[in-house]
Amino acid sequence: MPVPTAPPALPLPDSWTELRAELDRWVVAGRRARFWWRDDDAVAPTPALDRLLALAARHGRWIALAVIPAGAEPALADRLSDAPATVIQHGWAHRSHAPAGEKTAELGDHRPAEAVLAELAAGRERLQALFGGRFRPVLAPPWNRIGPQVRARLGEAGLAVLSGFGARGAVPGLTQVNTHADPIDWRGGRGFAGINRALAPILRHLADRRSGTADPEEPTGLLTHHLAHDDEGWIFLDGLLSILTRHPATAWPDARSLFGARP
What we know:
Number of helices: 8
Distance between the termini: 78 Å
Largest sheet: 8 strands, parallel
Strand content: 5-15%
Order of helices and strands: HEHEHEHEHEEHEHEH
Structural class: alpha/beta
Number of strands: 8
Shape: globular
Helix content: 25-40%
Radius of gyration: 20 Å
């Protein structure tokens, strides 16, 4: 009796094709899939920042640039004077205060909330002074982590919009505008994660929004880190933006639509 053999493995679907197919489903449904783009860790002009801004300009998109207040240089404000970027706040100094053995967090509940909020308020004031009307009082927590006690009192620091990672939940008194896909493999060498892995969260969030499993009004957010991308990552971003800026299903709201009017 012959030994049964496993059926041949089916080829993996091409993720770019799957992305186009998912967006086509939005067209058939008569709906628009909204996107936005956040990039973290800016403090100064660099060649990597130039590459980021050139990429955004080439595709006609704007970036929410999450700037670290403690390290922000005046030269960064000069560089952004005519760039397609809105500045938001990336914590205070991007320094972890978590005890050994716990996940890194600058804005956790490891310190008194008053101390954390005072730093955030100082950071907001510094960014307002440096960037003027380009700054929006939106907080992107370092490592996308914030303690519940700090989060509940964020308005005391003059910050009413929170941008984390993953599908948003209800937070009383706060507007949430999250990101959902990061193409860097932070745990496996910190290089590009690969096309399939990088696109999977985008495909999942789009499908969940379309089906109602996730908040259908939540825009799908791209998260990048210009200082950390390798060449493969940059090539991927160029390809992704080529699709997302040209497909008829997509829409890219402006900063006012996303974050609300300036206070």
